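Researcher: Checking consistency across runs. Here is Phosphate transport system permease protein PstA again:
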Amino acid sequence: MRTFKDNLLRGLLWFSAFVTVGILLLIVGYIFYKGFRLINFEFIFGDYSPTGGGGIWPMVVTTVYTIAISLVIATPIGILAAVYLQEYAKQGRLVKTIRFATESLTGIPSIIYGLFGAVFFVTTLKLGMSIISASLTLTIIVLPVVIRTTEEALKTVPGAYREGSLALGTTKLQTLIKVILPSSMPGILSGIILSMGRIIGESAAIFLTAGTVAAMPSSIFSSARTLTVHAFLVTQEAGDIELAAAIGIVLIVLILVLNFSATFISKKLNKADY
């Protein structure tokens, strides 16, 4: 009976894994099947034409701008907040309240963030419908993700590392910079990668804060359109599933490139530290 239960559980685990991978391959395969025909140099690097036949380069640039600005703001703030909560703050009611607040923020729909960004950044701060307004809104969206994943990464560092470093005469700050953060870098990197995926996949918040201008942005204060918003609009307005699928292929490749780049940089930093 015990062997039967073990085999049954193992079979269920394998079945779940195959179903998960199968669904992923089905979705990705369908997107490539529908959109791969449109992928060429002109499609990726050409300017958009509302009459058809144009490219998506302005949307690619807007997407990269949005990712870069959001991560430049959210990553240091999130890491520093997590370090304070985990390494310096007294573990009491206040810290529990802050953690509860950050966890609650992850469950708020992105359309609510978009409405807040439209009211605060676009109207109150008079930034207008722009890339910077969208990036600041996305910073608020991904900040809880960076904080929580960094906290969990810091918890995985053995206490013996801290004790050994302090026993050698280093300060707490030196221990943090030279020992704790390098050891927790894989977990921190995972949070950054998750944040990149969240930023790339957002459409509602960007739609309400950056606008829908399908042109090359002249600055971060220009109204523009990201790839996800573009895919949504061409599907809604023109019903062009093939074009939306081609945009999806570009998004998948962009995510893979950014993920591999982040992993490569993390490995280089770890080697430099040791």
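Researcher: Does this match what you'd expect to see?
Model: One thing to look at in this run: The chain is about 80% helix and 0% strand.
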